[in-house]
Design a protein that fits this description.
about 35% helix, 18 strands, four-stranded mixed beta sheet, alpha/beta
Length: about 425
């Protein structure tokens, strides 16, 4: 074995998360008590007892990280964010707290349209400057990979602008970004009386241009009252699929409208939100192998009920992932540990299921087959936590326990102030 560049030792356990969502989550986390992790050339070279390391694998050039008896797991994967935008909507937050609904605010010209106006006005450099601190905060929480959607441009020029910003951000900082086209986020103000014309713009101009430039891996649609009908969503997703982008869907968030069933029909990678998903929709997701992405921080932030039925989804055999849904309107938070705690308290997940949902479950949602686990040969995306067991993460509600974050074998965060229990 070659000399290691990095060794993480003295752990309580290493969660390698090499199991499957079809088995009990505690087993799927595949814990390795007191194991160490060796890294070379950005990849995991060894996982196992320190006594099993061949002589000479730890040399003078090896950086040794002492976990101090705490646990190590894969870098978190956030499968649902809207992290690139301009402006804020704190006034709308205040209005909701005074009784206004999300739909009422949107119908009055607020909501997504508010952020669209600010984002269109911003340059690429403005958007990069605004996004970098958000991404740094996410990285400090232990998120090493995150999906980022467009959706605040709603025209050809500005949707391309946002996706180009995502591309540039991937090269400017360590957090790996997975781009999603969301031109069907809302009907823009200038097309309110010409919905069909906007549908044509999405399917005939925006989707082909994004595909030609290779700017997005997925295409998402907000299928909801006040946004896009199921028929409109189907048309856009079919066009995107033909262009080489995998479908995703904001489904059954505010109303029960059959979004989950549509996600299954079009072979979507994920159906997200699902607060109002029907039993038939859950069965359809399970049969089609669609991942359910839950975003409980958004349910809390909007002060709506119910929370998505995470327990029923798991029991039906659906892969469940968790995201922050970071965005200025319905989830202004980068805090994935908070989402984990809420998933246990309100979505009915166990601590092990929540941990799976933020690691391997989320990686599978994005088609990242070598992410969200710690396996020899895979990219070395690791977090050294300041607690001895993963169950502490959702229990110590919303607190950051990521002490050391490693991306592709490089230490990118050292937070010795991370709280210890």
């Amino acid at each position: 074995m070659e000399t290691l560049e990095l060794l993480v030792r003295n752990t309580s356990e290493v969660l390698t998360v090499e199991g499957s969502y079809t088995e009990p989550a505690e087993r799927a986390l595949t814990p390795r008590p007191n194991a160490c992790v060796g890294v070379r050339r950005g990849r995991v070279l060894y996982v196992g007892p320190e006594g099993g390391l061949p002589p000479g694998t730890v040399g003078p050039s090896t950086r040794v990280i002492d976990a101090h008896g705490q646990f190590v797991g894969p870098g978190f994967v956030d499968p649902h964010t809207h992290a690139v935008f301009a402006g804020e909507r704190a006034n709308e937050f205040d209005l909701r707290n005074q009784g206004a609904s999300y739909l009422q605010i949107a119908q009055a010209g607020g909501g997504i349209a508010n952020t669209v106006r600010s984002t269109r006005f911003a340059s690429e450099e403005d958007l990069i400057r605004l996004a970098l601190p958000r991404l740094q905060t996410m990285l400090e929480y232990g998120i090493t990979t995150a999906e980022v959607k467009s959706g605040y441009g709603l025209n050809l020029q500005d949707e391309l602008k946002i996706l180009k910003v995502v591309q540039r951000l991937s090269a400017l900082q360590p957090l790996e970004l997975v781009p999603t086209l969301l031109c069907a986020h809302a009907i823009p103000e200038e097309y309110r009386e010409w919905r069909e014309a906007y549908m044509d713009l999405c399917t005939r101009e925006i989707i082909p241009a994004v595909a030609e430039q290779g700017l997005a891996r997925f295409c998402d649609v907000f299928a909801e009252e006040g946004a896009f009908s199921l028929a409109e969503a189907r048309r856009i997703l079919v066009a995107a699929k033909k262009a080489g982008m995998r479908p995703r869907l904001h489904a059954d968030q505010l109303t029960a409208n059959g979004g989950a069933e549509l996600a299954a029909e079009v072979g979507a990678a994920t159906a997200d939100h699902l607060e109002h998903v029907s039993d038939a929709g859950i069965r359809a997701l399970a049969e089609a192998g669609v991942t359910a992405v839950l975003v409980p921080t958004s349910t809390l932030f909007l002060r709506v009920r119910p929370y998505a039925p995470g327990r029923k989804l798991r029991e039906a055999g659906v892969n469940v992932a968790l995201g922050t849904n970071l965005n200025p309107g319905s989830a202004m938070s980068e805090n994935l540990p908070l989402a984990m705690g809420l998933a246990c308290l309100e979505n009915g997940l166990t601590a092990a299921e929540a941990y799976w949902a933020t690691t391997r479950g989320a990686a599978l949602a994005l088609g990242l087959n070598t992410y969200g686990r710690i396996t020899v040969g895979d990219p070395a995306n690791l977090v050294v936590f300041s607690c001895s067991n993963y169950r502490h993460l959702p229990y110590h509600l919303g607190i950051n326990h990521a002490r050391i974050v490693i991306k592709d074998g490089h230490v990118v965060v050292e937070n010795e102030r991370a709280l210890c229990p």
